[in-house]
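Reopening: structure tokens for the phosphoenolpyruvate complex, inputs below.
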Amino acid sequence: MRKPLISGNWKMNTKLEEAESLVRAMVAELDSIDNVEKVLCPPFISLAAIKELIKGTSIELGAQNMYFEDKGAYTGEISPIMLTDLCDFVILGHSERRQYFAETDELINKKVKKALESGLKPILCVGESLEDNETGRTEQKITRQVNAGLAGVSPTSQLVIAYEPIWAIGTGKAATGKQANTTISLIRSAVANLWDEKTAEAVRLLYGGSVTSSNIAEFIIESDVDGALVGGASLKADEFVSIVRQTSSLKSIR
Ligand code: PEP
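Re-run output (same inputs, fresh job):
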């Protein structure tokens, strides 16, 4: 049985003080929900402070990006060895990084390899554009991103993949639970083809794109959806707690 995982991607939001207040507002409630893995991905500058605030709880931390070298002349970048002291997870290949920072599948692949080598669990994001979706190229696009992102990577259940259709991110237009499950099943098959059935069954696959407390149930009840990567709604303590709580209670009837 795969443990459900709900991760909050705060993106480029919250100054340090705001980040601390947000964590204080939800730490106790999140900690009390124990059959869901809960991961907060704040901006880099808040990781150390939040690490202190969640010490001794069941909440984990993730970064939103990293570079694939340990150190050196890479002005402005953050390395895996800086992150391993602070967090367990790292989001890689988010569509906003592909779109605004020109990240390619090749670059993302280097980051995935390096994250795993360094002991960080990658949350590899894949997703098709509205045009790909409307022209029936979702499967082709997703399979290409999975194969390229995992090229040369040894099978591991430490990997998490988030299916995030670009047209659903931050738009308020989420996919339906059925749509998400169909594409996520394709991702599981792609992982099985590339690696093996057993590992593919163990890898957690998340849905992301306009998830809120009002629609999380629709995704979580689906057989291949193991959780969610939540953007906007993770910036509201009540919303995020409700998403985790519903995931916890629905897990038992999956
Ligand atoms: C995301 O940033 O990964 C995301 C899914 O955002 P939102 O939930 O706001 O659509």
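Residues 5-252 form a domain with the TIM Barrel fold (CATH 3.20.20.70). Residues 9, 11, 164, 169-170, 208-211, 229-233 surround phosphoenolpyruvate (CB under 6 Å). Marking as resolved unless the reporter disagrees.
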